[in-house]
Amino acid sequence: MTIRNSTTDRGGAVAGDRGWTRRRALAAGAWSVPVVAAAVALPQAAASAPIVVDLVGAVDDAQTYPFSAAGDTAPLVFQVSGSGPIPADGTAELVNAAAIASWDESVLLQGATASATIDPDGTLILPIVALAAGTFPVVVHVGPVSRTFVITLVPA
Fold it and tell me: So which domain of life are we looking at (predicted)?
């Protein structure tokens, strides 16, 4: 009868053996559970409090504003809502609108991006100045949400 004397490490593997043992597999699985649980929980947490941005009076995300003369102001009024906390401010960009409209001097500008405080009732007002008749998109950003609306300026 031959007796084989071998040493094992703490993981239960024979010294010099680098393969998977049941104990190593269980240990690896135990360490991965918190990582997988965190990865699964993050999308649910992000989806639990969605923010909704609407342009007041818009139909199919489009709004028409009549103006009498170049230089008239048209307030873009957005309603921000959600089941969780709403950010304190929002920003917007006029896209390809250089000859049609510009931001009113009352808005805070950061380059070409306008920003304003969202009222406690969820109202975000960003006035524009009509320069000429035309159509252009406005991209509004509130927290992680971005939404595009189409604005048309027409002579009154």
Answer: Bacteria
DSSP 61-114: TEEEEEESSTT-EEEEEEEEEESSPPPSEEEEEE-S-TTTEEE-TTSEEETTEE
Q: What is the pTM of this model?
A: 0.68
Cα end-to-end distance, the chain, whole Å? 107
Q: Any idea what the CATH number is for the domain that residue 63 is in?
A: 2.60.40.10
Domain count, the chain: 1
Evaluate whether 126 touches 114 at the Cβ level (below 8 Å): yes
Q: 44-96: per-residue pLDDT in tens?
A: 444 455 899 999 999 999 999 999 999 999 999 999 999 889 999 999 999 99
Structure tokens at 93: 């960009």
